[in-house]
Amino acid sequence: MTTTQSVTPTLTEGLQATQQVRRPPSRRRRFWIVAGLFLFITCLMMLSPFIWTAMSVTKPTNVAFVNPPVFVYTPTLQAFVDLWQTTYFAQYLVNTLIVAVISTVIALIIGIPAAYALARTPGYISALLLILALIFRALPRFAVVLPMYEISQQLGIYDTTYALAIALVAINQPFTIWLLRNFFAEIPVDLDEAAMIDGCTRISTLRKVMIPLMGPGILTAGIFVFLFAFQEYLTAAILTDTASKTVPVFITTQLGQTLPMLQQAGAAAMLLTLPVIGIAFVAQKYLVAGLASGAVKG
Amino acid sequence: MRKREFALLVAPSMIVMLGLLVIPLYRTMVWSFQQVEYGSPGEFIGLENYTAALTDPRFHRAVLFTIGLTLIVTAALVVLGYIIATLINQLGRWRPVVLGIMLVSYVLPNVVGAAAFSWLFDTNFGGVANYLISSLTGAEILWFTDVWPNRIMIILDTVWHLLPFAMLIILAGLQGVPNEILEAAKIDGVSSLKSHLYVIIPTIRGVLFFVTLISIMDVLRTFDQLIPLAPQAVEIGNESIMLYIYNIAFREGSEQLGLGSAISVLTILLILTMLFPFIRDTFRESKVAR
């Protein structure tokens, strides 16, 4: 091992030098032209539904959905104005945000201690609980959501944002626990032991030592749980009616309607996704780094 | 960790999952043996719902459709995710931009993304993809009413939606591959393709395993995207298991809750069977992990 390590740098340098002599320099460049083109086309295809929707909603209504499609037009924001004035979009957006924020906060508050305990306790019970969490993550939604529909009506909490938020906490809890547990597993146990020798209890070790170290992990888990709640369609469609309808449900009901409403649905989709896309661009560093240090060890 | 501490720390999370997942699940199991409607107590009918489900050709089609979709999409996600992650891993300046663009389809709500996706292909709405295909080849493809074009569109949309997550996880895995290994392979004169096959892929097999697991779980519960993409799902047989349950147990006019619950239970059995090897391995690993 030691010999390899000490020899490696010189060997690599030598190899690179020979490679440069042997291979024509254009080979690497040719690779990157092909790879760059491939990545460019991939990005374009990944963005195409989004770009096309953005175009459709900024077209004047009479040419928005004609066949063959129009490519040159005077952009207008009328669909956004109509969306704001003729529908309860603002209310639905507020509902969506309330659901997402409540469920993220609760998911983290109950998920962090559980994940910590699971990461620090080897043995059958932990393994069993983690497996159960894994199975719960894979459950068909309807197996839990249809009974929730009836239970929420019996309890009189049907069509409320907090009932939906709590339902989503439970549904996303398995994922939250797994992700956080893997982050905790990365932190050396010596730190716990040192803190406890210094007189910390388990709880204060978690609060004062672990949670500050878990910043990126908690942020990553928080972003994911927020996104899941923000995006949820099925659960929201079943547990809400009019009062606490969320934007994805609103957009879906608009889809079956006539043209101006369809355009408004597109406008709603844009308004909903532009902020999250912003978040994605800003948070991507955390997402990748977070996943690199935690999630993949599952 | 002492038992009492362990119990205290996991209790809140376990109580929430017990109350909101286990209890509803129990009710689904009870319902699956009943003739029942919302709000009224059911009547025990034994295995009738199960026999009805298992002999329903519509259920068979839904199962085959869902499994086929899962296999194709999972394979595509792992392969494409690996290729794209490998390329992005070598990018310099452009990396944040490309990653940000790749994430867009993941942060869009599935149903909204699928609606946007359907507009690309819908002739009625002047879909640009449809327009390009018909002006290049002259063929008018009926994306929404023909079985296979519809299936292809559903596959494309599902891959489009799930690729970012698969790619991101694989990218994270690639970053964990030690440089020494790659250099050692280079010194030994291993070609680039071979170093992928024999060095990198075995090193990150845990990550690929995780991506496969998550993809299988996600595609098996395909539902959201079919609402905009397959309005004719029932007629042309592109109904997923979840959509089938929704149609028979929730849509107005047919609230066959017992039958829907029986299918949920059967789906759980199917999922457990497909996940069994993964569950066994995970159990072995997490028993020894601290």
Second CATH tier, the architecture of the largest domain in chain B: Orthogonal Bundle
Round the mean pLDDT of chain A to the nearest integer and report it: 82
The biggest beta sheet of chain B, please? 2 strands, antiparallel
Number of domain modules of chain B: 2
Query: What is the name of the CATH topology of the largest domain in chain A?
Result: MetI-like fold
CATH superfamily of the largest domain in chain A: MetI-like
Helix content estimate of chain A: over 70%
Estimated structural class of chain B: mainly alpha
CATH architecture of the largest domain in chain A: Orthogonal Bundle
Oligomer: heterodimer
Quick one: overall form of chain A? globular
Order of helices and strands of chain B: HEEHHHHHHHHHHHHH
Q: What is the mean pLDDT of chain B?
A: 86
Query: Which CATH class of the largest domain in chain A applies here?
Result: Mainly Alpha
- Identify the overall geometry of chain B: globular
Radius of gyration of chain B: 23 Å
Low-confidence residue ranges of chain B:
none
CATH class wording of the largest domain in chain B: Mainly Alpha
CATH superfamily of the largest domain in chain B: MetI-like
* Biggest pleated-sheet summary of chain A: none
CATH topology of the largest domain in chain B: MetI-like fold
Sum up the structure in keywords.
heterodimer; A: 298 residues; mainly alpha; MetI-like fold; 2 domains; 0% strand; B: 290 residues; two-stranded antiparallel ribbon; 2 strands; 76% helix; globular
